[in-house]
Description:
By secondary structure, the chain is α+β, with helices and mostly antiparallel strands. 36% of the residues lie in helices and 25% in strands. The chain contains eight helices and 14 strands. Strands 1, 4, 5, 6, 7, 8, 9 and 14 form an eight-stranded mixed beta sheet that branches. A four-stranded antiparallel beta sheet has the order 11-12-10-13, sandwiched between helices. The protein has a two-stranded antiparallel ribbon with strand order 2-3. β11 (278-280) and β12 form a beta hairpin. The radius of gyration is 20 Å and the shape is globular. The chain starts with 7 loop residues before the first strand and ends with a strand. The structure holds (3R)-3-hydroxy-3-methyl-5-(phosphonooxy)pentanoic acid. (3R)-3-hydroxy-3-methyl-5-(phosphonooxy)pentanoic acid binds next to loops.
Amino acid sequence: xxxxxxxxxxxxxxxxxxxxxxxxxxxxxxxxxxxxxxxxxxxxxxxxxxxxxxxxxxxxxxxxxxxxxxxxxxxxxxxxxxxxxxxxxxxxxxxxxxxxxxxxxxxxxxxxxxxxxxxxxxxxxxxxxxxxxxxxxxxxxxxxxxxxxxxxxxxxxxxxxxxxxxxxxxxxxxxxxxxxxxxxxxxxxxxxxxxxxxxxxxxxxxxxxxxxxxxxxxxxxxxxxxxxxxxxxxxxxxxxxxxxxxxxxxxxxxxxxxxxxxxxxxxxxxxxxxxxxxxxxxxxxxxxxxxxxxxxxxxxxxxxxxxxxxxxxxxxxxxxxxxx
Length: 324
Ligand code: PMV
């Protein structure tokens, strides 16, 4: 009988949506951003990852939703962790994404945060959360923010050690996000590629300056729980991020589709009717509408009437990373 006890470690991290975006790297190898960013963690969508040290394996093995996958990005990230932490044996990783494709959200933020948390726990290391955030940043920039519930800020920093996220310790507020999934036939431009193109825009320097001011203003709005101000700044920041893609001098592009434009028009109409409704978008055509929880249902109904096939979800503020 095999009496060996297999130790495993499990971490659960939620996705986050940036209200002040990360859109450009000043150091690609280290994933150092050109600007600081600020996000809201979502309750509905998360990744749960279990890690087991297994030195019988010749290489790290990754299973995503029970399917073995060959994930270069994860292998590269584990190499970074071995560089940073010293040698550790091969790992078996089981990851489950509760970020349904129907929600149209990227899962890399929750995935790299959960992976980092589970690996560190499995290695028996006691690192503070800001250090975990710094490490996860190397897998995916936005993952640095997914350790913290509610609102988080990622300080751009100047080097590997000074670029990490932390909690904003913001007051509770009745904020909600309506997530609208837009079907897209367009070929996807990944975030790293999109950022590289955006950097060639003549407006990029201006965007960095404006973003720094918006980051300061957004922190005040969040601490004051002023949803209208939060939404106004987030929308302006997101739209100018997407303008950079259009004005790139190398391979200009857009994530917007006709359906995206239609949703943005409806959001505008709702705003003029006095509702709290502000749009933000990431590296894809989906629209996330920042609103008050009490307005969310009406926004869903209005979008449903105009676009009956649109998939819609309501998310609210989510928790810190947790461990089992
Ligand atoms: O972390 P990445 O490499 O997937 O980049 C995220 C980029 C945006 O989602 C567009 C903005 C952000 O700050 O999350």
